[in-house]
Write a structure and sequence with these properties.
By secondary structure, the chain is an alpha+beta fold. It has helices spanning 2-13, 23-36, 38-46, 78-90, 117-123, 126-136, 194-204, 213-217, 291-297; strands at 66-69, 96-98, 101-106, 141-150, 173-178, 189-191, 226-228, 235-238, 245-246, 255-263.
Length: 302
Amino acid sequence: MPVMIQEIKKSIKNPARLFTHQEKTRKAYKDFCKLILSNKLKKRNQLIKSLPKANPELLLSPEQGYKIIPAHLCFDTLKPLIQRCQKIVEQPGTTLKKESKPFREHLVTPTNLVNYPELTDFALHPPLLSIVANYLGELPLLNSIFLWHDRPSQDDLKASQLYHCDHDDVRQFKVFVFISDIDSTSGPFTLLPTHISSEIRGKLQYDWQYVDDQKMKQHIPPGAEIQLTGPAGTVAFVDTSQVFHFGSRLTDKERIMAVFQYISLTNFLFNPFHRFSPYPYAHLAKPEDSEVVKAVLNPDYD
């Protein structure tokens, strides 16, 4: 009985967890949430009009699901971001490790981000938000800001080192900023474009779990795997819900990346109808911030 009660509590806190493992149920849950929250979505999307027009050269293609951004096209918030991240790596404060990912240290947390305005300035930069909104089809929510420091490990591959699609939303938008040089020996983010991933999900009857290499290799066309490599300062946009991917298979060098994640209001991570605890980045909103920024940081802003 206690186990059943715990499961009920979890489902009330996040009802989406009951629908995340099948394509049809994921879509049905999203459609239901959009219907119930249509007025709220309309108000949020009105705010998109105040954003600058998205640069067509930076738009993420739904058919591909990833894009490498040329340095000359990137934002003026990039250089301060890299400089700050390099300083954090040299003199880390609070670091966190997850038991499921012993190869990774998290060098920033939602609570100490107030000390690193360069990260939030990058994440909330209006030209970037306009690109994210264009891809998601709505004003996004900023769901996470990470600074990852990954190191080589001799352990068996686990968790995100295996092929998977993120279950967080039907679509999401992640921005990866290379703080260190990344090549084939430093665990590059490796993906299959959206159109290929979609076919493989159907063949596997995918349930949003990790898939071992032996099973995946049967379905990957020759030459389909894409490794995201490049010097420090490289920026990549990826929809990690739509593309199969893995990373952090480090054999030699370490890997340092800043990661920014944006999701829709009707995501699978939080109850969209009632908040049981503050949204993780709501506290970053300042009185002088625009309505767009406040809404991106807090789904309850109205």
